[in-house]
Specification:
Blueprint lengths: L14 H7 L6 E7 L3 E7 L5 E2 L13 E2 L9 H12 L7 E5 L10 H11 L4 E6 L9 H4 L5 E4 L6 H8 L7 H14 L3 E7 L8 H14 L3 E5 L15 H11 L5 E4 L3 E3 L9 H14 L4 H8 L3 H13 L4 E5 L2 E5 L2
This protein binds iron/sulfur cluster.
Length: about 325
C-alpha cells in the first residue's frame, strides 16, 4: 500500500496546492482527485505513522509505531461524527477511502465505521487501501467484508523479499499473510485490485515473477495493479522500474488476470473493464429494467457489475422513487414504477 496522502491526480500538482486541498478535519482528508478512484474522501483511522510494516518505498516516511496490535487508535465516535457532518451535505464523491499514513485495519473499530456508512450513506462506495498483513487475524476480513473495493498489496514473493522490501514487525509471518490474502481474494464480495510494487533488484527476478504469477493464479483478484517508485521512498537505494521491466510482469500476469501499470509507465490490459461511476451504473440498471423486470443477480450477470455494487445502487434508486420492487417465488424483481 504505497502510503500516505495518495491524492495524486496524474497531473502535476505542487505540494502547496495539494496541501491546500486537504480538508481541515482531523480524521478526514480531501475530497481529492485520485488517479485511481476519481473523487475520494480519505478516512484516516490511525495516527501518523502507525503500521504493521515499514516499506522501503513508503511516501509517508519511516513507520514510527511498528505494531500488530489492534485497538481504537483514533476515537471511532469522532470519525463517525466528522463523516456525518461532511456527508450530510450530499457532496459529489466517487469513493470514501480508508487510507492515510498507516494501516487502517489496525483500528479495531473499522467495522463500525463501515457499518455506519453503509446504513446511513449507502449511495457512497467504500474503498479500503490495505497492506493485508492483518487478514490472517481472526475476524478482520469479516469486518471489512462490506467494502465495495479493496486494494490489498503484495510486494514480496518470499519471506526474504518481505524482510527487505516491507520490513515487517516481529512476529508477522509471510506465509500466513500470503495464504490469508489468497483466501480473502477468492471469497471477497467486493472488487479486489491487488497492488504489486516493483522494486528493481529485489523482487523482479524471473523466479520472483514466476512465484508472483503462482500466487495471483491462486488468488484470482479482479485486476493486478503494477506500481513502482514515483516519489522518494524511505531509503536512497530504491529506483523505479523501467517500462521494459514492468512489461516483464505484464507478460507473465496478463494471461491470468487483467493488469494495469499505474506508476510512471502506464499500461492497461485490453480486457480491463472500465470503472463505471455511480451515474453510469444507474443508467445501465434503468435501461435494463425498462426492458424487463430483473433480480439483482440478473443485473449483475447481464451488466458484468459486482452484485454488491448493484445492490447498493438499487437501494439508492428505490429511495429516489425511480424504481420499485416486487417479491415472488423467484426472488425480488425490480422494475420502473
Ligand atoms: S503499508 Fe505502511 S509502510 Fe507500507 S506504504 Fe503503506 S503506510 Fe507505508
Amino acid at each position: 500500500m504505497p502510503g500516505g496522502y495518495w491524492n495524486t491526480t496524474g497531473r502535476p500538482m505542487s505540494w502547496a496546492a495539494e496541501l491546500g486541498r486537504i480538508m481541515v478535519k482531523k480524521y478526514l482528508f480531501g475530497p481529492v482527485a485520485s488517479r485511481r478512484l476519481g473523487i475520494s474522501l480519505g478516512i484516516d483511522l490511525v495516527p501518523f505513522k502507525t503500521c504493521s510494516i515499514n516499506c522501503v518505498y513508503c511516501e509517508s516516511g519511516a513507520t514510527t509505531a511498528l505494531t500488530l496490535e489492534r485497538r481504537e487508535y483514533v476515537p471511532i465516535a469522532a470519525v463517525i461524527s466528522q463523516l456525518d457532518e461532511f456527508l450530510s451535505a450530499g457532496p459529489e464523491i466517487d469513493y470514501l477511502t480508508f487510507s492515510g499514513a498507516g494501516e487502517p485495519t489496525l483500528n479495531s473499530g473499522i467495522e463500525h465505521v463501515i457499518g455506519f456508512l453503509k446504513t446511513r450513506y449507502p449511495q457512497y462506495k467504500i474503498c479500503l487501501l490495505t497492506n493485508a498483513t492483518l487478514f490472517s487475524v481472526p475476524g478482520v476480513t469479516d469486518e471489512i467484508a462490506a467494502v465495495d473495493l479493496c486494494i490489498p498489496s503484495l510486494d514480496a514473493s518470499t519471506a526474504e523479499e518481505f524482510a527487505v522490501i516491507n520490513r515487517p514487525v516481529a512476529g508477522l509471518d509471510f506465509t500466513a499473510y500470503v495464504n490469508a490474502l489468497i483466501a480473502y481474494c477468492r471469497k471477497a464480495r467486493s472488487e479486489v485490485w491487488l497492488e504489486l510494487f516493483i522494486v528493481p533488484g529485489k523482487n523482479d527476478s524471473e523466479a520472483s515473477i514466476a512465484r508472483f504469477a503462482e500466487i495471483i493464479r491462486r488468488a484470482q483478484p479482479d485486476r493486478v495493479q503494477l506500481n513502482t517508485l514515483d516519489r522518494p521512498g524511505t531509503v536512497d537505494w530504491i529506483t523505479p522500474s523501467s517500462g521494459e521491466n514492468t512489461m516483464r510482469f505484464v507478460r507473465a500476469l496478463e494471461p491470468l488476470v487483467p493488469v494495469e501499470a499505474i506508476g510512471p509507465f502506464k499500461y492497461k490490459s485490453a480486457n480491463l473493464k472500465p470503472q463505471l461511476g455511480s451515474e453510469q451504473i444507474d443508467e445501465l440498471i434503468l435501461e435494463l429494467i425498462s426492458r424487463r423486470p430483473s433480480t439483482p443477480a440478473d443485473m449483475s450477470t447481464a451488466l458484468g457489475i459486482p452484485g454488491k455494487t448493484v445492490k447498493t445502487r438499487l437501494a439508492v434508486l428505490v429511495k429516489a422513487g425511480k424504481i420499485a420492487s416486487v417479491t415472488n417465488r423467484r426472488g425480488e424483481f425490480f422494475s420502473i414504477p
